[in-house]
């Protein structure tokens, strides 16, 4: 579940897709599920430094791969 939430968070950060479109790519999830996932990831990043480091590392890898 956490991997899906992180992936939704990164999808929102790195694409211009709507929340509805992102949700559809994750098995027909609703846009509110995407909002909840993004907020959950943000909250965890605020409270868990190891989690934040992991997400930041993933963000860097995605950015480098997009170049």
Word description of this protein:
The protein has 4 helices and no strands. With 67 residues, the chain is mainly alpha-helical. It has a single domain, classed as DnaA protein, C-terminal DNA-binding domain (Chromosomal Replication Initiator Protein Dnaa, Chain: A), CATH 1.10.1750.10. Helix 1 crosses helix 3 (31-47) and helix 2 (19-25) crosses helix 3 (31-47). The radius of gyration is 12 Å and the shape is globular.
**Straight-line N-to-C gap:** 29 Å
Q: Unreliable stretches, pLDDT < 50, 5 or more residues?
A: none
Largest sheet: none
Number of helices: 4
- Please name the CATH architecture: Orthogonal Bundle
* Helix content class: over 70%
CATH topology: Chromosomal Replication Initiator Protein Dnaa, Chain: A
Class in CATH?
Mainly Alpha
Q: Supply the CATH superfamily name.
A: DnaA protein, C-terminal DNA-binding domain
Q: Based on helices, strands and strand pairing, what is the structural class?
A: mainly alpha
Q: Provide the gyration radius in Å.
A: 12 Å
Question: How many domains?
Answer: 1
Strand share of the residues? under 5%
Q: What shape does the CA trace take?
A: globular
List the helices and strands in order: HHHH
Counted beta strands:
0
Q: What value does the average pLDDT take?
A: 95
């Amino acid at each position: 579940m956490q991997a899906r939430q992180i992936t939704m968070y990164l999808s929102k950060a790195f694409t211009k897709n709507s929340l509805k479109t992102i949700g559809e790519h994750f098995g027909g999830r609703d846009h509110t599920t995407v909002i909840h996932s993004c907020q959950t990831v943000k909250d965890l990043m605020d409270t868990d430094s190891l989690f934040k480091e992991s997400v930041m590392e993933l963000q860097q890898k995605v950015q480098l791969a997009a170049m």
